[in-house]
């Protein structure tokens, strides 16, 4: 098989969490995708859009559309950034010459787990992760993109994993982009509430499909001296021996 | 930074770390969540009911003038009075003058957020009138000299113990075991006396029914009916957006409001009022007045982007689901309407420059959008407020410079790589020097509440150049 996939790596993942993108790449290649990273990409514009700086966000969005318009299938290790492109570009670029192009590109951007399960039809990628794990359904992936079953299916297929139901799982972890800095005290309290729920679940690890939640939670766990650990979904899926499972993408 | 913004931050710091407060709210919300989940199951199709409510309210808003005049005509035909108030002052003046002219000494009120919004009680008290809040929650916060904590459950932030202490101090009622039934009985002793001595009853309205000229009120304690039937004068104070086209619309609106508000199938008392007592009726007021309050609502209506905000039926569902409300509680906002709807309503009606910070006090988790029974796109409204806030020039110089720099950096992949490299180096230095979280840390807004991030040696794009391509 030779499905060609373009990686859309969120700016903060590129700069601060490169392992997230490396693990995503590893899993995509394992299932037989040919992966390219368009090096002209920078940021999708979500930071500006969400803080009201639409004048700063619009050029980002236009740049994104130009960079990715040549690709048929775009995969992103973030539900929130995927949602920005798919759900919010039409509004942000409503008066742009690239409006229609933006809407079309939005339909070709897939969140990582969504791509694996819905597009590639893969749930077992041959991973092993013998730990107690809770899934945190990140806000934009769950509520804006309706992605929930996809990561759960992928996690259930991981060998040795002990999936723990998370109390009040749908409540926000407190990241919220600039919110985490403008209202750090509230953001941290929300993270603390999430941590308490994770402890109640008996989890060692929290995983999700939005690395930004994990970046925030990791800092909160540290500041509140908790033993909890964070791992992005692809980090779990990239583990383990490459078992001879039927994990190849059909053409 | 506006005074309101500073006050919000000050209170937010206190409440966010108040674990006792967090526990009380979590307990309250957990029982609300369970009741609502159960309540929704009573509907054959909850989503269809929401859609219907959204349509009804939208129809009312789109034809506001027509339906309000239709409503008014019915009231006038039956000898009632209708007063149109452009703002809080006009509304208060009308009620105060009415009270003065009828020599009113005591007023009983049933729960009404609009009267909180226009500070009607204060206006009445200023001319020496005694005002009794008769909803139990409102009664409690009035005794504490506090605004309501929540638009549906005004005293949800208080424990039974705190209420027992309050009653002992203010009413001289000793309820040692803080038993809820005995607390209610203690409040009732005071309230009954008030009901029978009051010369005026003031209520709000949940809906104004245009086709039949009726005021619909949903209550749970019976105080609403006492307020609107015992005193010789009944005054309804209500926002203009409450009007709905038809009486039959209540068949959907009433159960949806109750379910969203408390999880009930319908509130204990669902009352329809069409005017003063008529010949042959055993009870009811002798005079009936309706005060229709605008107070900024037509500004929302005039803007096609914000018009949908007027659909709000004040059920409180967005407050209850909001993870920020669940941390900071209702008093931190400093507004009459707290939570997501308040953070939209207040900046739009009371001024973006003073209140715009509230549109940012949200992680954009979008949970509120999913529970709003009239399908207001609350997250979108908050984003639009932010856009207008920035466009109007309400931005700190540092933030403006930050975004200008960001815009410059991300316009070129080469600059982005270079700036990213510099930022990572700077973060590594700050961390190595032990400055994290201190005054010299440019990332202190982050590190004040979190351990500093582990700074990777290289970005993904650098890694890709070395190892990724194949």
Describe the SSE topology.
The complex is a heterodimer of chains A (251) and B (470).
Chain A: E1 4-7, H1 11-16, H2 18-30, E2 34-36, H3 46-50, H4 54-68, E3 74-76, H5 79-92, H6 99-106, E4 109-111, H7 112-119, E5 132-135, H8 139-144, H9 149-156, E6 162-163, H10 179-182, H11 184-201, E7 205-208, H12 211-223, E8 229-232, H13 233-237
Parallel strand pairs in A: 1-2, 1-3, 3-4, 5-6, 5-7, 7-8
Chain B: H1 3-16, H2 19-40, H3 46-62, H4 64-77, E1 81-85, H5 88-101, E2 106-109, H6 113-117, H7 120-126, E3 130-133, H8 136-143, H9 160-171, H10 180-197, E4 200-203, E5 207-209, E6 214-219, H11 223-229, E7 233-239, E8 243-244, H12 250-262, E9 269-273, E10 287-293, H13 297-302, H14 317-321, H15 325-328, H16 339-350, H17 352-355, H18 357-360, H19 367-371, H20 378-391, H21 397-409, H22 413-432, H23 444-447, H24 460-468
Parallel strand pairs in B: 1-10, 2-3, 2-4, 4-7, 5-8, 7-10
Antiparallel strand pairs in B: 5-6, 6-9
Q: How far is the first residue's CA from the last residue's CA of chain B?
A: 52 Å
Give the mean pLDDT of chain B.
Answer: 96
CATH topology category name of the largest domain in chain B: Rossmann fold
Largest interface: A-B, 64 and 63 residues
Helix content of chain B: 40-55%
Describe what you observe in this structure.
The complex is a heterodimer of chains A (251) and B (470). Chain A is globular, with a radius of gyration of 18 Å. In chain A, strands 2-1-3-4 form a 4-stranded parallel beta sheet, sandwiched between helices. In chain A, strands 6-5-7-8 form a 4-stranded parallel beta sheet, sandwiched between helices. Chain A contains 13 helices and 8 strands. In chain A, strand 7 (205-208), helix 12 (211-223) and strand 8 form a beta-alpha-beta unit. The longest helix of chain A is centred in the C-terminal third of the chain and has 18 residues, at 184-201. In chain A, helix 5 (79-92) runs antiparallel to helix 6 and helix 11 packs across helix 12 (211-223). Chain A folds into 2 domains: 4-119, no CATH class; 132-237, Rossmann fold. With 251 residues, chain A is an alpha/beta fold. The radius of gyration of chain B is 26 Å and the shape is elongated. Chain B has a 6-stranded parallel beta sheet, with helices on both faces. Chain B starts with a helix and ends with a helix. Chain B has helices at 3-16, 19-40, 46-62, 64-77, 88-101, 113-117, 120-126, 136-143, 160-171, 180-197, 223-229, 250-262, 297-302, 317-321, 325-328, 339-350, 352-355, 357-360, 367-371, 378-391, 397-409, 413-432, 444-447, 460-468, and strands at residues 81-85, 106-109, 130-133, 200-203, 207-209, 214-219, 233-239, 243-244, 269-273, 287-293. Chain B is of the alpha/beta class. In chain B, helix 9 (160-171) crosses helix 10 and helix 16 (339-350) runs parallel beside helix 20 (378-391). Chain B has 3 domains: 1-41 and 317-395, no CATH class; 60-298, Rossmann fold, CATH 3.40.50.10420; 408-468, no CATH class. Helix content of chain B is 53%, strand content 10%. In chain B, a hairpin with a 4-residue loop joins strand 5 and strand 6.
